Automatic annotation (TrEMBL):
Domain annotation ABC transporter: ranges: 5-254
Annotated keywords: ATP-binding, Nucleotide-binding, Transport
Spans traversing the lipid bilayer: none
PROSITE patterns in the record: ABC_TRANSPORTER_1, ABC_TRANSPORTER_2
GO molecular function, one term: ATP hydrolysis activity
GO biological process, one term: peptide transport
Pfam families: ABC_tran, oligo_HPY
Annotated protein name in UniProt: Oligopeptide/dipeptide ABC transporter, ATPase subunit
């Protein structure tokens, strides 16, 4: 197949007064052209940090940034800011950060905000950019006269559509969406999900969809990566993941989701996610794991290959 993005042993550590936070600790996965992955996990597991590490959008307190991010054959983790801005960010990968709809500039009209990436990253003239902005805003389901409105004149769902239009306007190959529906009511959430599905189908775009809501992720993803304490603990195709989750953490995550179709017992995951400054030795999940064995407390499990495309980081599946 045609690999679009390959993330290899990516690490992003932060330095703080309390110590080094290992937010992304050796994450690897790949996606083919047009394929999508959902990265799921509890709050604080490192999902947003992973998104920023892929784009090399690093805060000032970085302690370590390491690994490879190979996009369309080029390792973009080695590029400098100027190269990333001119050739990669927006043009090849767009990023919709958490709560992006609230970060639209309140004093600039929607249209002027939409054309910015085209002018700065794609070299469009203003007239060409306006034409494209009108086309895009209509495509995401907003009447074109809204390009002359200010963000406060739009509902939350409309602002999220504007953000999606902005992410798509430069025709990137990959869009990273960090909790794209979490601030919206359920009906608007469903509408935005439908829009994202349509975009995917029509434009053949790849998504990296970051969420703590695994039920939502099931709608969009071909693959699922479960993050726990900075590491991927299960990587699988979506069908296998939702029908036969392997890692005890994945099983607990899935059984904590209520379902309208089945009468099932809802369980919750006891305890809290570990500190990323002093994570537990061995498997980072062992203090919360109902199946923890001796080895889990001592040695970190490797990512074990179960079948093609299905990996799990758990001693229950072999090893020593
Ligand atoms: N700049 C930073 N400096 C220090 N620690 C940070 C920084 N950014 C994030 N962290 C810490 O890194 C860990 C991972 O955070 P991150 O936001 O990546 O997780 P997340 O899974 O996306 O969580 P959420 O869903 O709540 O956003 C957390 O412990 C967080 O407090």
């Amino acid at each position: 197949m045609d690999t679009m993005l390959q993330v290899e042993q990516l690490k992003l550590y932060y330095i703080t007064l309390k110590g080094v936070v290992r937010a992304v600790d050796g994450v690897s996965f790949e996606i083919d052209r047009g394929e999508s992955i959902a990265i799921v996990g509890e709050s604080g597991s490192g999902k947003s940090s992973l998104a920023r590490a892929i784009l090399k959008l690093l805060p000032r307190n970085v302690f370590l940034y390491d690994g490879k991010v190979i996009l369309d054959g080029e390792d973009i983790s080695k590029l400098n800011e100027a190269e990333l801005n001119s050739r990669v960010r927006w043009s090849k990968i767009s990023f919709v950060p958490q709560a992006a709809m609230n970060s639209l500039n309140p004093v600039i009209k929607i249209g002027d905000q939409l054309i910015e990436p085209l002018i700065y990253h794609k070299g469009y003239s203003k007239d060409e950019a306006i034409k494209k902005a009108i086309e895009m805003i209509t495509y995401v389901g907003i009447p074109n006269e809204f390009i002359n409105r200010y963000p406060f004149e739009l509902s939350g769902g409309m602002r999220q559509r504007v953000i999606i239009a902005m992410a798509l306007i430069t025709e990137p190959k990959i869009v990273i969406l960090d909790e794209p529906t979490s601030a919206l009511d359920v009906i608007t959430q469903a509408n935005i999900m439908n829009l994202l599905k349509r975009v995917r189908l029509e434009k053949g775009i790849s998504y990296i969809f970051i969420t703590h809501d695994i039920a939502l992720a099931s709608d969009l993803a071909d693959k699922v990566g479960v993050m726990y304490a900075g590491k991927i603990v299960e990587l699988s195709d979506a069908d296998t993941f939702y029908t036969k989750p392997l890692h005890p953490y994945s099983q607990l995550l899935l059984s904590s989701v209520p379902s309208l179709r089945e009468d099932k017992n809802i369980t919750y995951i006891k305890g809290t996610p570990p500190s990323l400054i002093n994570p537990p030795p061995g498997c980072r999940f062992h203090p919360r794991c109902p199946f923890a064995m001796d080895i889990c407390r001592r040695e970190e499990p490797p990512l074990i290959s179960i079948e093609k495309g299905v990996y799990v980081r758990c001693w229950l599946y072999g090893g020593k």
